[in-house]
Amino acid sequence: MTPAARLQAGIEILDEVIASARDDGPPADIIVTRYFKTRRYAGSGDRRAVRELVFRAIRRSAEVPASGRSAMLGLAQEAPEFLALFGEVRGPAAIVDGEQGSPARVIPAWLEPQISRLVEPGEWPVLLDRAPLDLRVNAARANRDELLGQFPGAEPTRISPWGLRLPFDTRIDDHAAFTDGLVDVQDEGSQLIALACEPKDGMRILDLCAGAGGKALALAAAAPGAAILATDTNRSRLSKLAPRAVKAGAVIETRLLNPPHELEMLADWAETADVVLVDAPCSGSGTWRRNPEGRWRLSPERLDRLVRVQAQLLEIAAALVRPGGALVYAVCSILEAEGEGQVTGFLSGRSSWIAQETPIAAGRLTGSGRLLVPSQDGTDGFFVARLVRPC
C-alpha cells in the first residue's frame, strides 16, 4: 500500500469506528482486525501503519468526529506530511477550500466538570498515553522474581506485589508462562483492586460483577483456600471464566444472575460474605489509554444510567456482607460521581458502616476512598474504597 492508500484505509476504518461508537458496537481493535481480513494484499507493515494512524486520530478527538475524513484531516493538519497525501492516487480526495478537521481535545467538553478535582488539567493528556502491558503472576503457582527474567524488558510493577510490566507492544500469547497459566494479562490497577480485598484462605469472597473473571482469578491466586463465588448478569462474559480458571488451576464457583432478582439468587450468601467486591460497570474513563474511543461512547444519559446501576449494586452488596465483613467498591473511573460520590451516598444512609484504609501504597485520598491515575501512579485510573460493616 502507498502512504496515500494507507491514509484512505484509515479513513474507512474510522468511519466504521464512529458508527460503532454511536450504535454501541464492537471496539476499534476488532474493527481494524476485521477490515484487514478481507484485504489480504495489505502486508504486516501496512496493517501496523494504518492501525497507528487510526488510533492517533482517535486519541486526539475527544468528541465524536463528523466522519472518518474529518478525524484524519484533523490529524493531518497537525502532521503536514499527511496533508500532501490528500488528492493522490488511491488516497483521500483533495482538500477543498475551507475544509477543517475535527478539533483536538482530551476530554469531551460536557464531561470536564465531572472529572475528579484531584486530577489537574495538566494531567489530562496522560490519560491518553499508550499504556504498557501488565501481567499478573499467578501467586499460587509461580514466583514473580523467577519469572522476571523470562520476559525481555520486564520490570516489577511499582505497587502490586504480583505484577510485571512489559513494553506496550510485547506479544505474550504464545509464551509458555502464559499458556501454562503462570501469568495473565491484567493492568496493575486491577491487581490492586484485588489487593484491597485482603484475601485470605478460609474466607468467603463474592465477586459481584465478575465479568470474564480477571479479579476473581487474582483473588483465587492470592488465597487458594478461599471460597470464591463469581457472579454476573452477562452470560457471554461470565462463560469465559471457567476455562481461564482451569488454566490457572483455580477453584472458582460461577453463578449467572437475573436482575432484579439478584438477592433471591444469592440467598445462600446473605450476610455471610467476608468480602464482597463490587467492581461496578462504569464510564471507563480510567481506561482511555487502552480504549480512547470510549469517550465517543459516553453521553450524559449513559453516565446517569451507570451511576444508578452502581448505587443499586452497592445496595445488593451490603445485604451480603457479614457483620464485621467488608465491601470493596471499585470503578475504573476518574469521575467524581462514580467514585467518591457513590461512597458518600452509601455511607450517608448507613452511619454505622465505616471506611477503612486500603493496603494500597499509592494514589490520592479522596473522601472515603483512594484515587489512582496514570500520571502519578502509572496504572489505569481507578477509584477504590473499602467499607466495613459493624459487628
What does this structure look like?
The structure is a single chain. The protein has helices at 3-23, 28-37, 44-60, 68-76, 80-83, 144-148, 176-179, 188-196, 214-222, 235-238, 241-248, 262-265, 294-297, 300-318, 340-348, 374-377; strands spanning 133-137, 155-156, 163-166, 183-185, 204-207, 227-232, 253-256, 273-279, 321-331, 354-356, 364-366, 369-372, 382-388. 45% of the residues are buried. The strands form two sheets. Strands 5, 6, 7, 8, 9, 10, 11, 12 and 13 form a nine-stranded mixed beta sheet that branches. It has a four-stranded antiparallel beta sheet with strand order 2-3-1-4. The longest helix has 21 residues, at 3-23. Helix content is 36%, strand content 16%. A hairpin with a 6-residue loop joins strand 2 (155-156) and strand 3 (163-166). It folds into three domains: 3-105; 133-185, Alpha-Beta Plaits (2-Layer Sandwich); 188-388, Vaccinia Virus protein VP39 (Rossmann fold, 3-Layer(aba) Sandwich), CATH 3.40.50.
Instruction: Return the average pLDDT rounded to an integer.
Output: 95
Helicity range: 25-40%
> What's the count of strands?
13
CATH H-level superfamily title of the largest domain: Vaccinia Virus protein VP39
The major pleated sheet works out as: 9 strands, mixed
CATH architecture of the largest domain: 3-Layer(aba) Sandwich
CATH class of the largest domain: Alpha Beta
Please state roughly what percent of the residues sit in beta strands, choosing from under 5%, 5-15%, 15-25%, 25-35%, 35-45% or over 45%. Answer: 15-25%
